[in-house]
Amino acid sequence: MKQHEDVCSIVEELKRLYPDGLCSLQYPKPYELLFAVRLAAQCTDERVNMVTPALFARFPTLESLAEADVSEVEQYIHSTGFFRAKARDIVAASRMMLEEYGGRVPDTMEELLKLPGVGRKTANLILGDVYHTPGVVVADTHCIRITGRLGLTDGTKDPVKVEQQLRQVLPPEESNDFCHRMVLHGRAVCMARKPDCANCTLRPWCDFYTKS
DNA sequence: ATCCCGAGGG
DNA sequence: CCCTCTGGAT
Fold this sequence. Notes:
EC 4.2.99.18; DNA damage; Endonuclease III, domain 1; iron-sulfur; Endonuclease III
């Protein structure tokens, strides 16, 4: 599929392109990051960052979110889309974290997935960014698309398969940052509709460019 | 019409 | 595997 040397070149070039600013969703409290990621479903991070300041000012603690009126939460997050499900999940997950996890965000995939509205993508992001778990792969839409184009995966869109395939080629201590760089690269250069290959320095190692 | 750092349910 | 949930941007 892909030579180890090529993978290293891709990893190093991405580090050069995106040395820092690894996550555009940055929140002081783990549960705030969790809910920001939930809100980011089918919505840009930019828009999420527009609604969260007011939301977390109105509901400044996990307890206040657990007791919140769902319809009031809906108003704060309306513009992020899917607002009914998201609001319901935020309140329900707050209650579960208080009642079953001592008011903390869980640190295992199994427990994270029990929280309403938390799927693999959100769980992996928490495991990587909050708990710094080695070998975490966040297979979101950008990661799946770009690694598929590069040829780091076989082109599958199944997130679990992408996770597995990337874990086999990426150094465990690099995988989380690599995924964040996929997001940055996906927004700036390797867009879904019209990838800007002319301005992409990953060209030498990219199947999508080389074979088209 | 298609996409945005998805998740849940059938 | 499929579908639905939803608003906003391009």
